[in-house]
Write a structure and sequence with these properties.
This protein is of the alpha+beta class and 304 residues long. The protein has helices at residues 17-22, 25-35, 51-61, 113-124, 130-138, 169-186, 191-204, 212-224, 231-240, 244-254, 268-276, and strands at residues 2-3, 11-12, 78-79, 85-90, 96-104, 142-149, 157-165, 261-266, 282-285. It has two domains: 2-61, no CATH class; 80-285, 2-Layer Sandwich (Cytochrome Bc1 Complex, Chain A, domain 1), CATH 3.30.830.10. α4 (113-124) packs across α7 (191-204), α4 (113-124) crosses α10 (244-254) and α6 (169-186) crosses α10. It is globular, with a radius of gyration of 23 Å.
Length: 304
């Protein structure tokens, strides 16, 4: 996933070895002095305290922390760093293949957030979800297969993944794609699936507020993602409001298998012949993610 603020320059969001090595102490000091300002911070306190006694202590403790000019934060567009294809990292002798299928997902403030949560719960949110029931319980390809959206202030990644028996790598990829297409409508969501997964999300919700630390973490999310104060009060109603049609709609909007990158780490000599049968470009990468061939391997049947 790339950070692309002006659609002219592509940057790897997490950086790389080169950018980390290039950092100096002055870079860190300048970053701290620029952004770590009281006018760019929110203090959250949860516990057996009251404002009247706490506020004077905080004002004294932070008296020397001065406001400063903080650069405005622009909305950053996230784009796919990789073209749709299989990206294969050779791990000779590996007993299993690590498979991850993904693309850019959604931001936390997206109005489709709740429908996406229900949809993903049905697809790969746990041990009763479609991916798990297919790849583990039915096919026995893996101990577990899951999917997840990781929403951020900007769009975070979506991935569906599992650790797969080497000999079943091609078949597992096929089943991942089958389930991704299924949730888009090829296999319509049932009323039972919808109800069970909505209730699962709702019943787990209170456990996220059990300790002071959890409450503080939840409140910090409101600040981090720019969410309204009513977010938690509305959670149950918004999850309950998700329909089967909503699930199909967001699956079609945010999960397009034809746009996804498939990353596989495994024993190339064993798994590549089968992967070629999927008729998808195969790009060979080293362990740092760098291409080790000039062009993608031609799919089976592709013109020379």
């Amino acid at each position: 996933m790339d950070e692309n603020p002006d659609k002219k320059e592509t940057k790897q969001l997490t950086g790389d070895e080169k950018t980390v090595k290039a950092m100096t102490r002055d870079d860190l000091v300048n970053f701290y002095n620029t952004y770590y300002r009281p006018n760019n911070a929110t203090l959250i306190v949860v516990g057996d305290v009251d404002t009247a006694s706490l506020k004077p202590k905080l004002e004294k403790a932070f008296a020397n922390w001065k406001p400063g000019e903080v650069p405005a934060m622009s909305n950053v567009a996230m784009t796919m760093a990789a073209k749709p294809a299989i990206y294969l990292v050779d791990k000779p002798g590996a007993a299993q293949s690590s498979v991850s299928v993904g693309l850019v997902g959604i931001e936390r403030s997206n109005p489709d957030f709740y429908a996406v949560q229900v949809m993903n719960s049905i697809l790969g949110g746990g041990s009763t979800a479609r991916l798990f029931m297919n790849l583990r319980e039915d096919k026995g390809y893996t101990y577990g297969a899951y999917s997840r959206f990781t929403p951020r202030r900007g769009a975070g990644p979506f991935s569906a993944s599992g650790e797969i028996q080497t000999v079943s790598t091609k078949e597992a990829v096929q089943e991942f794609l089958k389930e991704l297409n299924g949730i888009r409508g090829a296999r319509p969501v049932t009323a039972a699936e919808l109800d069970v997964n909505k209730q699962s999300l709702i019943r787990r919700f209170p456990s996220q507020f059990e300790t002071p630390g959890q409450i503080a973490g939840q409140l910090s999310a409101l600040v981090t993602y720019g969410l309204p104060d009513s977010t938690f009060n509305e959670f149950i109603a918004k999850v309950n409001a998700v329909s089967a049609a909503d699930v199909t709609r967001v699956a079609n909007k945010y999960l397009d298998p034809s746009r996804m990158a498939i990353v596989i780490v495994g024993d190339r000599k064993v798994i590549e012949p089968g992967l070629k049968e999927l008729n998808m470009p195969i790009n060979l990468l080293d362990t740092e993610g760098n291409a080790i061939v000039a062009a993608a391997t031609q799919p089976v049947g592709a013109p020379k």
